[in-house]
Amino acid sequence: MRGAGIVAGVALRESVRRRVFVVVALLTVAFLGLYGLGVWRVSREVTEFGDFQSGVDGDVVAGATLLGLSMFATLFLGAILAVFLTLNAVRGDAERGLLQPLIVRPLGRGTFLLGRFAATAGVCVTYTVFVFLASVVITNLFIDWWPDRLFVPAFQMAVAVAVLAALALGGSVLLSSTANGIAIFMLFGAGLTAGLLGQIGEALSSETLQDVSQVTSWILPFEAHYQNALSQITADTFGFSRFAIDLGPFGGAQEFGWFLWPFTALYLGAIAFGALAAFRRRDL
Amino acid sequence: MAGVPDALAVEDLRKRYGANEALKGVDLTVGEGELVGLLGPNGAGKSTLVKIACGLVQQTSGSAAVAGAPAGSLPANRSLGYLAELFRFPDWLAADELLQLHQKLVESRGGAAERRELLELVGLGEVPDRRVGQMSKGMQQRLGIAQAMLGEPKLLMLDEPTSALDPAGRRTVRELLETLRSRGVAVLLNSHLLSEVELVCDRVVMIARGEVVAAGAPEELSRAGGVEVTTGRGVRHFAQATREELPRIVRELVAEGEDVYEIRVLRSSLEDVYLELVGGR
Ligand SMILES: Nc1ncnc2c1ncn2[C@@H]1O[C@H](COP(=O)(O)OP(=O)(O)OP(=O)(O)O)[C@@H](O)[C@H]1O
Ligand SMILES: [Mg+2]
Question: Predicted ipTM?
């Protein structure tokens, strides 16, 4: 535990010294600013929209769709952070000779991985939850709407990026930096595509598309958590508003039920086990 | 000495990298407080052996133990200090911060005093705040040596620690090694600088193509050059003869009616022995 704390501390200190957090903060401010601008523009048009379609609450549809967009972007930013913080944690650093001086210390390879995971997941989770909550508040500043659930979707977004961080860290044991970065972004893309397929499948009532999407989301559970988070923000919305949201790009998200939680725990455990086994066998 | 485990004990150690057999059954011990030089040509397996002892590389078979604990275990790693031949420290850390980090990792209680002393010892006392990224290669190597000495390890494994050092730095390291020996620290030194090894090491182990080809004290290894006698009929070479046999050889030559003009006891240098044993490759 002590060793893991030291390793995590070094990883965080490196990010601070390399100004990673400054860059991320600036970009996030820019993102949230743009998002606010978008919400404001939409809010001025929603009023008319609501007048035309009776039975559809324009604020709900606009709010849910915009927040869905922001969640998509937030997950993407969280994924970038997760990938870049762990990209070269093992093999990349070993190839450069940075890892060996640490590993010969009485530390243990498992402790090293744990420390790196704690640092990355800590940063990514904090970041994702912050951006999600900030988006919720910004949405409400201009549109009179709050999501139906707040903490569960925030938590699920956090779990989604934690899964991505675990995948990237596990990947760093097997792959060199560039290959790992590409691999994780491809998995990320595959997950998102699967989610979109499912939404299209829902709109077209296509069982096959929805099945493909389901299976892929179980294989890449960050997507399942993201889908769940999306569906949670309109959990209590029904009727014509629901119908209108489902037709939008961020509606029609699938739900994955309680089994997703133990499944995710097992999934993370499997990554940890595989990564550690591979790391233990790796000559440095 | 009974009961005190060797600082390093390696038995029938083998390592395969795919089809390439880097170590083919190496036996080696470094006793407590002993300074052993590991010599051998490029690709002989020296670094592989040291990496196995540090737990960085997994052996194919055989055993390696550091202070009685299996190589790679936490107690083994607690007893050793290591400087790799190709290493890098994070370029954003200052010299003192790097040592502080490693002090935490080895649970050293030396504090600022230990860091200051080690930086002084390796000649970086003036620049504790300089960042690794702004250090020359030799300065980084000096820092690496200081880092390896943190926490008073029982066994220090240095893989070509002076490859980037200036002549003064090399002498500093030699003196450092002698100080360490006097404190009872065992050292395994990989080096291509035969003169350096000859000067400081208690024992030398030569490996070539993954096998030990010679082992012994430097003066033992560099003996056996034979005797050369210049007589009236030319130069005669007695390859196996030693200094002790000289009077007998001279008596015999004189008895045979030879005129003896000059006698030389040949002492091949460690370099000659090395080149002979490893085939000059
Ligand atoms: N990671 C590796 N993968 C495959 N083969 C390796 C690896 N590391 C070393 N080898 C091989 O093992 C053999 C021994 O290499 P090693 O680095 O131990 O030599 P060395 O004696 O330290 O040489 P040098 O004096 O050049 O440092 C060489 O044939 C080398 O090609
Ligand atoms: Mg070497």
Answer: 0.85
